[in-house]
Every structure is written in C-alpha cells, then in structure tokens.
Amino acid sequence: MLGGSTLGATMLGGINLLAPPLVPGYIKFVVGGVLWSGVYMDGSLEIEEELGARSVCSFRVKDRNTLALSLGAPITVRDRNNVLVFAGTIEEYQEEWPAMDRTTPNRFVTVTAVDYAQIADRRRVAADFVDQLPGDIATTLLTDYLAPEGITAGTIEPGLFTIDRVIFSYQTVAQALDELAELVGFLWRINYDRTLDFLAVESCPLLSFGYSDSSLPVLSLTKRRNRDQYRNRQYLRAGQDILDPPIVETFSGDGETRTFSVQLGIAVPPTVESNRGAGYVTEIVAIRDKDDAGTAQWTWQKDSTQVTQETSESVLGDTHSVRITYAGFVPILVQDDNQTEISARIAIEGGTGLYENLEEDGLIESVDFAIDSAGSMLRKFGKLDPVVELETDEVQARAPVGCLQSVELTREGLTGLFLVTAATAWDRGDGRIRYKYSLAKGEPFSQWLDYHRRLAEQGHTFVVRENEVLVVVRENVEAYELTHVGTGVSGDSLQAWTTDGFSALVVGLSEVGGEWMTTSGVGFNTGPFIAEPFVS
Q1: Which stretches within 382-486 are classed as H helix?
Q2: pLDDT at 346 > cutoff 90
C-alpha cells in the first residue's frame, strides 16, 4: 500500500517500475507520488550539502519512455532503513537515447533536484519591521511568504535583542533570512520535512554519538591545514559612524536659495533654525519623501549633505539666515592585530610575519561595533586550525550542515567542537549510503557568531536601510467615462479652445482652414488647434 492505494506491478523490459513493498537493501525514490525505485540505476545517487547553499540530489533512471517528468515535482529519497535522506523538487532533468535505431526502447534520465529552501528563492519581500525580535521577523516571513507554499514552523528562536528597524525592499525571502541571520548570529534552513528553522548554531541538535576513541564509526579520516583564509592583521572598512559632538553651520539667505549644503552627510534629524530679524526660531524638519514631509518646513535625507526648505515657506531674504545643527557621518576603517600569531609566523617564516586581510561591511555604523567585528574575524580566521574530512556508513551519522559536532580523537590530534561545513552522500552500489563530512574547528565560528549578541548587550542598535523609501506598486484596471460640453462660435478659427483644459485630448494638427464637423452637423473652421475629429 502507498498513499492508501494498491500499486500493481508495471513491467518495463524486466524492470518493475511500481515495485511491491521493498525489502531492506533498496534505496527508495518517490517522485510526484510514484515509486521510482524499480527503474533507479544502482550507484548513481549523490547528495551534496554545503553551508550557505542549497542541497542538491542527483541520480539516474532507465525506462521505456513512460515516466512522467515534470520540473518542480516533489521527490523524496529514503535509505535502506527508511530514513529520509533527501526531500525537495526536480530542478532539472536530462534525457538520453543512446541508440537511435528506433528499436532500442530504453532511455536514460539524469534527474537533479534541490531542497525546499529553493522556495525561499522564489518569493520576494516588501516589508518594514520596527522594534521587533529577529525570531518574530522570521515568523512573519514564514506566515506571509512561505506558509502559502506549504512550509511550516520548525524551531524559531526569538533572539536576545530587538532590531530597531529593517526594511526589505523586494529582496528574496532567502536573502532576507540570510541578512537577518547574519545580523544576529543565527542560521536558517528549510528542512526535508518542509519546516523552517531559525536558530543559534549551538541550538542545533548534535549527532546521537560522538566521533571519539570509545565510539569510532569512522571509516577514513583526512586532516589538512592550509593558509587559504588565514590572517593575523584584519582591516575592516565599515560604514559610517556618527560624529560627536554635533556640528553647527550657519548660512545667509539671498532671496532665492532654498537648499543649503553642510560639510558632512547628516546622520540623524538635524535641528534647523531660521532668523528673519527677530532671533532664531526652531522649525519643523522631516525626512524627504516621507509621509510627514508635507507638514514640514524643511526636509533632509540620511547621509545627504542637503537641507531643503519647502516651497510653501517664504524664502529667506538677504537679511535672513538659517542655522543647522547636525550630527555628521565619518567613514570607519579599523585595524586589529593578533600579535601572538604574528610572532609565531616570524619565528617560522622570518620577515614581518604579517598576513593582512581587508573586509568591507557597510551595515556597521559604529566604531566600537567595527572594532569588535574585526576582532571576531581574527578569532575565526586567525588560526591555522585543521580542516577534517571523514567518511562513515552509520545511518545515525546524519549530521546537519551548519551545526556543531564533538570530536575526540587523541591520536589524530582532534579534540573539541567542529562545525559541519559540507556533506556528501552517495550510493555505494549495494543499497547502502556512505556519508562524507567536512568539519572546521568550531570554537572560532561560535565566538564569531556570538559577537552580535554581546554587542547588543552593550547597547548597540541594529538598523538596516532605515532611510529607504518602500514603494509597493500594484496595478489596477479601472474604466471611466469622460464627457465634455462646449459651445462653438463661428469664425475663422477656434483659438479660444487652447485655453480649455480638455484640449489636451486633441492630437496632431489638421490643415489650416480645414473643417471639423460635430455629431450634430455643426461645422467649424479648425485652424492649427483642432486636429483629428473626436466626439464631445
């Protein structure tokens, strides 16, 4: 029985397409609700997972041109113990007919599928969130965009601090979750059971056993070290910090100018005071193009140097002046060194021992934040820790990519927490699946992700695209009827009609001296102002 109905056996050249319940030893494929295990080509299954990327599954089948192939069709793969090892939808397929003699019935199909995180790439977010916990934002993204696609809530943690404001202006849901997760030191994923997780790395479930001296399900292990991303001096070019104390700049009016430019980009709402002869008076300021700008006397925009007087206000004359008090932006470039590592490199290599790296992150708008971020990057990349690859056949070893795993192998010099950065699974050819994992030392990753939370506890605020104007465009088709009643006076022309607003409906020019006949039979000399006849 499958899905409540009995499946009959369909034979394709000796291949049982809809096989009866499978005995242990078979890998089970269900595509679009149909069992494909009978046409699966042994040894062709491969599943690849990588941190920050979509899981990809590929395999080959052989049939007599009867399989229903549809892009987007759901697919599940289970191992010999009925454990779900992949679920997603068909992304691509390739058909091959190796013999074109029109007598060989078989074709070969290579199927490539991606996991359900692909759904988050399809939907785009237009939303503005103010003073919300990151988990609440993730829940809203789930409710509004992913739930209609069949995604439900898995583990969604609230986070430890509130995000002041974030605007998503038509980013994909995946990009929005990426940005949100990076900002708060979380990870997100859509699991094979179509549930959304948004949680801290340390909250991920570990394997049911550790790779240790007393429990060793490891078939082979490779440990390597390289200097690919190593650095011991970190530069960080961040965004802009707010200069303190505020700057005061004064400008004279000239009877014409309404826009005044200060020296630095403005960070927060400025104070604008005008003096028209009776001393300085504070006036109303609003962000340009925002809803409340219509009630303001002056407008400004974040990171702009310009403050503009509204045209509804009296322009400042020659004897008038305006005083602008504002906090300006200054660019941030910080440097952090790991002197212990520099000294170690000098001892081994000589010279300066320096390995320098430059990163850029325009979202950071605090010098303290930038300094701590640079230090966290050094903790993450400032050690020559090993990268480990290991293989296992144990079904319990289904390690989630992005989570931490305890490793205790004293002979190999591997102890502590390691982050699972990638995983590959493949069919050995005998119905069993082998797993290969890539692991990186986990403590630096944990420390790197934790700095966001520590910064929040120190009072840092988190704002993303605060000054962006979100415009949601929707097309509505409406029908309307326009009528116009006019009175004509005989004469050589209809020049008076040019002052009529409805004359904009007349296009093109007729010959001077031509005649226009109305529906009632009244004729007018057209002149250069009336062109193609229209019914009024």
Answers
A1: 442-457
A2: yes
